[in-house]
# Entry
Amino acid sequence: MFFCNRCCRCCRCVCCCNHSEQRPLGEREVTQRDLEIFREAMEGIVGVIYEPTRVRVRRVSGGLEYRFTAVARIPGPPSVVGEPWLVHIYIFVPREGPAELIDIVRLTDEELNVQNLLF
# Structure
């Protein structure tokens, strides 16, 4: 998402005025609309349950790029399937058409340490 110095600074607004001073906002809580986009892109993914906790959105050529931070876990008791882990899930939403899953990346220990400092 973007805002400029002349428009609303609410994290849920998208600047539509094409001002040159647009800049990306940081990660934020997941909204209901974000969840709809997440579910659309993740439809058909089986074997792992992903629960989004934070999102970062930025405008790119042709649409919006979402990076969700999510907790991933295999269904079943932790003693059998292991502990959950954190991932980044990249989703592209074109101006017209459905949301597309681009990539799922497991966070490394180094990224987790940085992530813990930010929250």
